[in-house]
Amino acid sequence: MFRLCKSVASKTSLDQDSSRPLTLEDLVEHFVASKRSLNTQTVLWRATDIVNTARKLLEENAVLAAKNTAIHNIVDQQVEALEAVRRGIDMVEAEVGTEFKQLLHDVDTSFSGLNSTLAVLRDTPIEAVLQPLGTPQKHLYDFIDSATVSNLEGTLRACIDRYNEAHGTLDDSTDAFDTALDNLRSSIENVPMTPATTSNPSPIPSLYHDLEAHAREAAQAFQSLVQHYDLCITALRHTEGGSAAATQATGDAPVHSGDDIAATPEPMSEDERQDMLNVLRKDAHEVEDVVTEIQERGSEMTFLLSQIEIHINHLRNEASALFSILQMISRITGEVKRHIATSRFFHASWLEDTRPSLVNGIEESENQREFYERFDLAYAELLVEISSRRRRHEKAKRKAEEAQKELDRLRVEDERAREHFTLAQGDFLPLDIWPGLRDPPRHYEVRPVPVAVEIEDDNLDGVDEWGDVGRAESGGVQSIPQLGRNVVERALTRVKRRM
């Protein structure tokens, strides 16, 4: 913009009124306008305050920007650490959960096999011929201790209940942890981010630079007004009656000048005076524009300061929100210890209680199933053994009967031979020649050998020589029952299938 201060000796073209000489009234009017223009000094005072305020805000901007950046980094690190802890808890839970599901499947499979075996025992009746008369029908299941299975099921059920309780406690802990992390993430997302990035840094340095430029330009413009004012005073000094006219017009002594109008002016030639008046005449037309410029620059500085303050307020709000985030992280970090302790307890209870109990339960269930399967197999083999014993018994019985018949035949033959000898020689032999001369043949008899076995009388239905009529043989040995052919065949099939 064109400035009023010019060299008095400069030659410029004048406006259309340049041909008319300036009167004393014109000079007084220019003087009054010049003095009034100096009121823009308040704008300079305000500009000084704005610059000082902006300088402090510039310093605060640097501090807040650095602080907020550092806190952002700290928050990111802390959130990453918290999320790492949460993932660690998830890994423990997932690892335990996977193994628990597998062991639970193994438990179900094992008990399914055990229950299938028990169902076989329930459906396998004891052959009636093996039981005392009048005994109610029994099955293999009646001969086992079912309380062992029930106790094992109860133990595993209690173990699973303890696991579910520990897992429920862990779920409550992780839910609280997740809620805290969600709130933290939400709070971070809602932090009022200051509109400044690496590619778009803080606008305050640029705004402050513009403020200084406006202040400098306003000061220079005001200096032009001061110089114009001084030029008006000089012109009045070199005009007759100028001092009195200026005092009368303003009502007081002029200001902003080191000399008053009444002071004795320095000598000046008429040409120099005319040149001075020409400059004054031209500059007087620009006073209003310069005043407007100063006021506009003051308004622009006020606007720029408001932009700086808006950005600083963004930074302050961001700093306040980040401080709240740090407090939230501090609270969550304090709670993390409890979450970790809960996870450790869950893992320890798994390693020390649940897992060993399930593994032992599976092993014991398998052992019981194997034992009861062997029991079922042993009963099938018992039926086969009874059938084999019966066959051997029948064979021995036939051999005994054959031997008895041969003995009886020999005895009859011996009796006949003795009778024939007696008839032929008896009259000739005295009886005292051999005491056994007239004895009958020795009698031999084939029969079961008695065995000393304790047996209740009511278990015996009768006794015969060979154990065929009653349920016990003579001498306390129970008779070998006669099993049906189909019973033995089914037993043989079961034995072969399990070999």
UniProtKB/TrEMBL annotation:
<dbReference type="InterPro" id="IPR045326">
    <property type="entry name" value="ATG17-like_dom"/>
</dbReference>
<keyword id="KW-0175">Coiled coil</keyword>
<dbReference type="GO" id="GO:0000045">
    <property type="term" value="P:autophagosome assembly"/>
</dbReference>
<dbReference type="GO" id="GO:0034045">
    <property type="term" value="C:phagophore assembly site membrane"/>
</dbReference>
<keyword id="KW-0072">Autophagy</keyword>
<feature type="coiled-coil region">
    <location>
        <begin position="383"/>
        <end position="420"/>
    </location>
</feature>
<keyword id="KW-0963">Cytoplasm</keyword>
<dbReference type="GO" id="GO:1990316">
    <property type="term" value="C:Atg1/ULK1 kinase complex"/>
</dbReference>
<comment type="function">
    <text>Autophagy-specific protein that functions in response to autophagy-inducing signals as a scaffold to recruit other ATG proteins to organize preautophagosomal structure (PAS) formation. Modulates the timing and magnitude of the autophagy response, such as the size of the sequestering vesicles. Plays particularly a role in pexophagy and nucleophagy.</text>
</comment>
<comment type="similarity">
    <text>Belongs to the ATG17 family.</text>
</comment>
<dbReference type="GO" id="GO:0030295">
    <property type="term" value="F:protein kinase activator activity"/>
</dbReference>
<protein>
    <recommendedName>
        <fullName>Autophagy-related protein 17</fullName>
    </recommendedName>
</protein>
<dbReference type="GO" id="GO:0034727">
    <property type="term" value="P:piecemeal microautophagy of the nucleus"/>
</dbReference>
<keyword id="KW-0472">Membrane</keyword>
<dbReference type="Pfam" id="PF04108">
    <property type="entry name" value="ATG17_like"/>
</dbReference>
<feature type="domain" description="Autophagy protein ATG17-like">
    <location>
        <begin position="37"/>
        <end position="429"/>
    </location>
</feature>
<dbReference type="GO" id="GO:0000422">
    <property type="term" value="P:autophagy of mitochondrion"/>
</dbReference>
<dbReference type="InterPro" id="IPR007240">
    <property type="entry name" value="Atg17"/>
</dbReference>
<dbReference type="GO" id="GO:0060090">
    <property type="term" value="F:molecular adaptor activity"/>
</dbReference>
